[in-house]
Design brief:
81% helix; 252 residues; mainly alpha
Length: 252
């Protein structure tokens, strides 16, 4: 299966990136609120699950009842905020939380099925997992904005991304490189604070690592979720001529 086919109209990657970070900036407080549960849960898992394969699998099973809904809350809330930003508005904390809670169950299923399939694909020489990630990038936004349901979200994303998968792949590679650099800086700064003469006793290594993992997890998942929503809107605009007002009406 090829990642892309010939596209009728070029996707504007700079526009997608600009919309992504504008949404994060405009709704920063709301996004911090909806991303904190997942950031903290992932940091706890990182602290107590040893980095061997068996422990990681066991830890995923133990933490999944908490991690799946917390990720779904984050993604639903971020999608709500991106749609508001497209209309020049700032989403409220209550609005983001409300949307995240409203779609908690279907978004949890989308996340579970997508993760299992992508991980299986990554085991199979990596490429199938990358293809599925690109094909399903808009599944979450389709689920929330269009109310497609779980299976419909995957079908809708496959339909929307057809013809644009190489540019989408490039966007995610750029995001990953940017976030790795940013996360390294976060870890470095937190470590410097933790091991300074006065702060070392108060913070300690574990607390410093917890803070760094929490912040980096919140940032990565918030930005990647916002990017997925921005890609979804870009594709609908190109393929269907849908404007931001039509998307916003779903939350009225």
């Amino acid at each position: 299966m090829a990642i892309a086919e010939t596209a009728a109209e070029r996707i504007e990657m700079a526009r997608v990136v600009k919309r992504t970070f504008r949404a994060v900036e405009k709704n920063f407080v709301a996004f911090v609120v909806v991303s904190t549960p997942w950031g903290a849960i992932h940091a706890i898992e990182d602290q107590f699950v040893p980095p061997d394969v068996f422990s990681m699998i066991f830890g995923s099973v133990v933490f999944s009842p908490l991690s799946l809904p917390s990720v779904a809350l984050l993604q639903g809330g971020v999608i709500h905020g991106v749609v508001a930003s497209l209309n020049g508005k700032r989403a409220s904390v209550g609005g983001c939380l409300g949307t995240g809670l409203q779609y908690l169950w279907p978004m949890s299923l989308v996340g579970l099925l997508g993760t299992v399939a992508v991980m299986a694909g990554l085991v199979l020489l990596i490429v199938p997992g990358v293809i599925l990630t690109v094909m399903w990038v808009a599944a979450g936004a389709a689920c929330v904005v269009e109310g497609t349901g779980v299976s419909g979200a995957f079908r809708r994303s496959v339909e929307l991304t057809r013809g644009y998968r190489w540019p989408i792949f490039g966007l995610f590679v750029a995001l990953i490189l940017f976030m790795f650099a940013f996360i390294f800086i976060v870890f470095l700064l937190v470590s410097l604070v933790a091991f300074s003469s006065n702060a070392a006793a108060a913070l300690g290594t574990m607390v410093a690592q917890f803070v760094a993992v929490t912040i980096s997890t919140m940032l990565f998942w918030t930005i990647s979720s916002a990017l997925g929503a921005a890609i979804y809107f870009e594709l609908r605009q190109i393929k269907e001529g849908v404007g931001p007002e039509a998307l916003a009406s779903v939350f009225d």
